[in-house]
Write a structure and sequence with these properties.
The structure is a homodimer. By secondary structure, chain A is an alpha/beta fold. Chain A folds into 3 domains: 207 residues, Nitrilase/N-carbamoyl-D-aminoacid amidohydrolase (4-Layer Sandwich); 208 residues, HUPs (Rossmann fold, 3-Layer(aba) Sandwich); 112 residues, no CATH class. Chain A contains 17 helices and 18 strands. A 6-stranded mixed sheet of chain A has the order 5-4-3-2-1-13, with helices on one face. In chain A, strands 6-7-8-11-12 form a 5-stranded mixed sheet, with no helix packed on it. In chain A, β1, α1 and β2 form a beta-alpha-beta unit. The longest helix of chain A is centred in the middle third of the chain and has 24 residues. Chain A is globular, with a radius of gyration of 27 Å.
Chain lengths: 534, 534
């Protein structure tokens, strides 16, 4: 009746020394707990997302040395763990009594499940993996395998440079019928034990049920906390406009680093309404953060004066972007440096998709924590935090109710109900079709012509008719955002901050070339049919 | 005696319609020129670097339609071309008289060389490829193949988002002994003809011989020109400091878009010397560009005053970065927007490696044209352009002679010979070992201890002794730059502009995770041996 331990450990990618120390401690603990086997995740020694570090010969050699040390510590216990092999290929190892073992030679057969190529005599199976968290994946699922299966994953955050992924562990024990009988708390380190021959007698349990907003909040909170810890930063500066994105970011960071370490900065120009200035102040009061008001109008005027002074003429559109850059690159970056912290990028996925943000302006920051969320998910998160995390309207209802607006010109006057050119209840879904499903205007226009668009992109019925009176206006809108997505959107994403992923389709994981906009011939033909011309 | 045409065409990635129109015209031209065969490069229809566009079903379908159109145009001529297959896999096709053909069924045997798996009965071989230009690769080389070989590549620029690659074509004809008998001018579109049965009788010729600076200049000029054309930009703003990088960038862009489309902007603070201000002005005069002086001192003082006004204290280091951001994000971005153009990032590869630049400051821009060049190559390029392109000291000798400096504080006073913390004659080579050879402090310290470091990293003998009197100072320097390379350097590169590649190891092509600095155990042990401690 062997007892088996499985370690849902936090793996620090690129630091085999740190991971190995932890593994050695966990082996000791597992043995002390009476385990005959201890199972670690894939990539437990090097981590998975280490980039070109895996081409460093000296790094591979250190990992191999660490592997030897782990094997040497395997007296009276079988240790499964992930590491590089001598060729620098990610592999899974088994050691016992100081020796590396082929797992089939062990006294009770175990078998790595990874290839789904298992033999009938195995007593139990191991599934070891390193798959980042995605809020819409089905957790704790296992097909029946005719024998118990122990699934073990790492926690922590790992990154590919442009994308920060969270790992929730998702370690669990399944009985021979593929039913869940034990699981480790997600996003937490733990060493769990299970009696092999008891597994099929254990009561079946249900995996935790969470709402979408709950899952997203948990992943964001964990990801931000771990990432800040890894880069050694404890103070966070958030530019707050009185809009929803910056308010949600502020509320999130307060939960992670505490109100006393969050600096909220409101930077009004003459276009900012008393309404949003008041909402920003209210937000800061509710969250209990330090709050600075640093106006930008003088600096913007001075910049325009300097440019006009050398003979340039500065259009209103250029002035809008001057404001955005003045806020982030002049004020927020300097405030962050002065307090010894970082400043945040509060962009959401809809804005990122169409590049509705200014480079070196609101597109700047150390991390985009919300850029894998569509606008409706940002609102959901606001309501969730108010209800479940803060227990009161920490994010003022006025911020949730106000029309989304950049407030960079009189055309974006919130008090007159004017704001962003995006109608999020429709565009969130149109843009998701582009960004997450590889759909193009060809399919969209086909579905529009067939009257099935809302159904196919999952948005509310009636919106297409509401927003677009004619095929002309529908097509103009479609082409506007497709051009933005494939044109300036790409150029801006190349220089944007890392994104905290909550799906398996964040920007940064996409491969994007700056090749300009293309409309397929089939699209152009269909368009000509619908509205004439070419 | 079949005549064969090969098309070194410019491929526009992601635009199959444009490429197909060109291919159809070239087929017509080839037929009119009496060719029985016409050969196009790999990926001629879709382009190679299209990112996730290859996951768009509508795009693949359009490419297949284009392929059918090309096949339909193959009356009385055999057409070889690259395209996607029905599964979206990059493939190479052959068509004749409106039908797709297996090439082995053709009246005179031809064979794709790509797998080096050819049979003896073939009359000639085709090599079709899409490899970006790298200045240090060996051009026009071919192993003997016992039959003539026609090699065809595309020209143009293609990009992966973060990296812009040039394609020089490198199309050529080799005889049965692998000797060069004809080649297409690099970086130029052309349709060349050759008589198959004459190839082995043609005189052997030598490939063009160029210096490193010549090759680099040609690739940069072509890459910048083509990229600007692709993104539809004709006006360029360069911040000029009086230093070498911005001067070389200015001289390069003037050659590409003409002096009247280049705006040079000098942005002095109180730390900028009369020397560098004078050199900037001289540069503008020599190049014949518009020249603006836009001081930043008032704005920097105002920013500091605003921050102090809300109770923050602003250190001298923070003030340095405020200056850098004020120049790029406040002035250059606004000037570029006002003239309807873009502004450049002038960083070199040594600075990029260690992040010796300010995010949203001198790290910003639409393109880093020099960021695949080490500092010594920037100097070489300056001398080359003065001698061969301008024919006079367009880049003033004073700019070449002055000590490299950011001039952000009195500690960087050029008139006192003070400047950058990098000793480029040594650090260029140390950093190249990190960035291009995957070496780490472990190997560097081993070689230092063995007295062979300069030889192993190819820098001038005597420099290590000159710069480092003790092992302590050597190690402190080594660790400083390794930390910079693996720490802030990575964070900055994630948000840096696209880089124009001239090697096969540009940043952007590397995979980098923001995992912090790691020193291997072997390194730490060797260090302890050399200087004690741990």
């Amino acid at each position: 009746m062997p007892k088996i331990a499985y370690a849902q450990m936090k793996v620090l990618a690129g630091h085999p020394d740190v991971n190995t120390r932890k593994i050695l401690n966990l082996i000791y603990e597992a043995r002390a707990g009476g385990a005959k086997v201890v199972i670690f995740p894939s990539g437990a020694v090097p981590g998975k997302m280490i980039g070109d570090t895996e081409s460093q010969r000296s790094f591979i050699c250190e990992c191999l040395d660490c592997g030897d040390e782990i094997a040497a510590a395997s007296k009276d216990i079988v240790v499964f763990f992930g590491n590089f092999d001598a060729n620098g290929i990610s592999s899974y190892f088994c050691a016992r009594n100081g020796e590396f073992f082929d797992e089939n030679k062990l006294p009770w057969a175990v078998k790595c499940y990874i290839d789904y190529d298992f033999e009938s005599e195995a007593d139990f199976l191991i599934e070891h993996f390193s798959i980042p968290f995605s809020f819409d994946s089905k957790p704790y699922y296992c097909a029946p395998t005719n024998r118990p299966l122990i699934s073990v994953g790492a926690v922590g955050v790992q990154n590919t440079g442009k994308t920060i992924y969270t790992f929730n562990g998702e370690s669990a024990v399944f009985n021979s019928r593929g039913e869940l009988v034990q699981y480790a708390e997600p996003f937490a380190e733990c060493l769990n034990f299970v009696e092999l021959f008891e597994i099929d007698k254990m009561p079946v349990i249900n995996p935790p049920v969470e709402t979408e907003a709950e899952k997203i909040y948990r992943a964001l909170h964990y990801g931000v906390k771990e990432f800040l810890e890894q880069i050694g930063v404890g103070k966070v500066v958030v530019g707050v406009s009185g809009g929803i994105d910056s308010a949600v970011a502020a509320a999130l960071y307060v939960q992670v680093v505490g109100a006393k370490n969050v600096y909220l900065v409101n930077m009004p120009s003459r276009f900012n309404s008393a309404t949003t200035k008041g909402l920003s102040e209210q937000l800061a009061k509710n969250l209990g953060c330090k709050y600075f008001v640093v106006p930008i109008q003088e600096s913007v005027d001075w910049t325009v004066k300097q440019l006009e002074g050398v003979g340039l003429s500065v259009s209103d559109f250029v002035k809008e972007n001057i404001q955005a850059r003045d806020r982030s690159a002049r004020i927020l970056a300097a405030v962050a440096a002065s307090v010894g912290g970082v400043f945040t990028c509060n962009a959401n996925k809809a804005e990122s998709t169409v590049g509705y943000a200014t480079l070196y302006g609101d597109e700047a920051g150390f991390l985009s924590a919300l850029a894998d969320l569509w606008k409706y998910q940002v609102y959901d998160l606001a309501r969730y935090m108010n209800e479940k995390i803060y227990g009161f309207e920490a994010i003022p209802q006025g911020i949730i109710d106000i029309v989304p607006s950049a407030e960079l010109s009189t055309a974006q006057n919130v008090d007159e109900g004017k704001g962003d050119p995006l109608r999020y209840d429709y565009h969130d879904y149109l843009l998701r079709a582009f960004a997450e499903r590889n759909l193009t205007p060809e399919e969209i226009l086909l579905w529009y012509a067939a009257g099935v668009l809302e159904d196919r992109i999952d948005c509310k019925a009636g919106l297409v008719e509401k927003y677009f009176l004619t095929a002309q206006t529908f097509i103009a809108d479609l082409e506007r955002w497709w051009k933005a997505f494939t044109g300036m959107g790409v150029a801006k994403r190349i220089q944007s901050p890392p994104i905290l992923a909550v799906t398996d389709k964040p920007y940064g994981a996409r491969h994007e070339s700056q090749n300009g906009t293309h409309f397929t011939r089939a699209y152009r033909e269909l368009k000509a049919e619908l509205i004439g011309g070419k």
